[in-house]
Amino acid sequence: MDLKRKLTYIFWFCLPLLLLFTACDDMEDKPFTSDIAGDPTETDTAELYALCEGLFNQNNSSLMRFSFGNQRMVRNYFNTINHRGLGDTANDLAIYGGKIYVIVNVSSTVEVIDFQTGNSLKQVQILAENGSSREPRYIAFHKEKAYVCSYDGTVTRVDTTSLAIDGVTSVGRNPDGICVQNDKLYISNSGGLDHASGSGVDNTVSVVDIATFKEINKITVGPNPGKIVAGVDGVSVYVATRGEDVEAGNYNFAKIDCLTNEVTHYNEKVQNFAIDGDIAYLYNYNYRTQTSSIKTFNLKTGKTVRENFITDGTSINTPYGINVNPYSGNVYITDAYDYTIYGDLLCFNQQGQLIYRLNNIGLNPNTIAFSDKASQSDIDDDSEETENSLAFANKVWEYKPAPGQFINTSTSAYKDGFTYKEVLEEATRKIQQKSIISLGGFGGYIVLGFPKSIPNVEGEYDFKVKGNAYYNLKTGTGKLGGSAEPGIVFVSKDVNGNGKPDDEWYELAGSEYGKETETRGYEITYSRPESANKDIPWEDNQGNKGVIFRNSFHAQTSYYPLWIKEDKITFQGTRLKDNAVVENGLWIGYCYPWGYADNHRNDKEGSNFRIDWAVDNNGKSVTLDYIDFVKITTSVNQDAGQMGEISTEVMTVENLHLKKN
Length: 661
Prior knowledge:
Layout: H1 3-6, H2 15-22, E1 36-38, E2 47-52, E3 62-67, E4 72-74, H3 77-82, E5 90-96, E6 99-104, E7 109-114, E8 120-125, E9 136-142, E10 145-150, E11 154-159, E12 165-170, E13 175-181, E14 184-189, H4 192-196, E15 204-209, E16 214-220, E17 225-230, E18 236-241, E19 252-257, E20 263-266, E21 272-276, E22 279-286, E23 291-298, E24 303-306, E25 319-324, E26 331-335, E27 342-348, E28 354-363, E29 365-371, E30 395-400, H5 420-432, E31 437-438, E32 445-455, E33 463-466, E34 471-474, E35 480-482, E36 487-492, E37 505-508, E38 518-527, E39 536-540, E40 545-548, E41 568-576, E42 580-583, E43 586-590, E44 608-609, E45 614-615, E46 626-634, E47 649-650, E48 652-655
Antiparallel strand pairs: 1-28, 2-3, 2-29, 3-4, 5-6, 6-7, 7-8, 9-10, 10-11, 11-12, 13-14, 14-15, 15-16, 17-18, 18-19, 19-20, 21-22, 22-23, 23-24, 25-26, 26-27, 27-28, 30-32, 31-47, 32-46, 33-44, 33-48, 34-35, 35-43, 36-37, 36-46, 37-45, 38-39, 38-41, 39-40, 42-43
């Protein structure tokens, strides 16, 4: 099924995620590169931190730290020190008063971190009186206070010494940006969630007097204001308004005169921007032409300085965040690629020339913070080789996907001209990074190995298979629905001790095992089409014929695995009953109760597995004291309309008897 649709979220709530639906289809596959390219040197800068928001509803936000002194990058800095994750969908990052502040939207927290040690000081819960999430978005500071704007129409004030909430004030609808200028808070009121419900967007910026902590004015700036930044002149605030129709591209750049409240609109299209003195770096994306631009703009003259900020030909697939290092003036742009693999951080000088880049820093890097002082935490990438990392799959032994819309893209570990050996190497790298790999249609499979055997502990779950299933629906029958794409899981023990997955495989009997909802002995054969850009025909051993349909979201040349030389691919196994249905015009993939990969959310018990479920080919229970290999195979053969084929996706497999990374 379409990964884009799996990540469906209200556009106005989290603008960049929509790019996943519309912008990534024709992107080039991400090249394999070393962690650091170029010369990472900076003026008066000791460290930088990059916030990676992860994937919505996957609880996998992360914080990366790079130290210029020892040239070392720690990708999962917060997790490595605190032995837990940041939470779900981190939006904003700032360093202030010896502390690092991270806004985690879906988890509804402000994570406060001691800068020197990296230890968590407190998770400030941003909740309404009834306990519901306020959905925090961005943070700003003034003297001893932090101010957090939230999507429920409020700003929360936090004391930066006690880390206690000491006030909440109401502003406009769905605030989506905040800054401080001239002893006042300026909050952009997007009205984004209201737009999704048909009520229209907001078009104002609220002005809050800091002394009284009360709203004193609303300034009309244009529909759906978002990013907002204080000018260096002390009397101006700049804001991006994003319009009511994302595809129409009615974005505008505006200035508020804080003395008169007058608004100046510039004839510049902008979705995101950063300011360095009198120069603004404006980023925009055209959804209809699927092209992006970054230009430089003079705030004093109101004129464009350069239509193309990048002057050396450096290509960026999907710009996701733009920040300026206040100590050097260098411009940092993050590249999210196709939103399912680790993104990169690129540093340019003010002339638009690439100085260096940090590769594979995390999923969807969005915000960069800089420090002129070094922390005292003595960890680096070597520290990741601990018991934490031993808990996860670290090798792909076999990868044979069926045809599908993600095949021959980065989501299938293929790059132009790759041999099977190179596909396995890339798949291994992706699994080690916990990036998504698609198995394609029915029968496609992957075989994973581990640095340590997974023991069978009686009465406990032994491992977790992480995919990208989510659900937010519960029908009257109690069935969970969303984007489940169930895959059957097999396990094997290295009985002969040669370290290879060549011993007997045992199926883990899930909730549908032996029921009429499965067809055992199912066989399907896919054929390479005469033309690479055609649908993929298939026939099964039940007398059925069909095709893997191409769709407008994924326009790569072929859906048939290009590294496979044979013109026909046959898979055998057990087919589960179709689980996707159309409800209210949307395709809903319903979850089976338990025992299948990519079937329940990663943070739910339904994604856990017991080795005790193992059965042999005759259905007889098998006792295994441990396992060394896991095989996962797509087990539904269904076309879900505009969503595409049902295709199991895998991020990693985790040994639940070791510490989590």
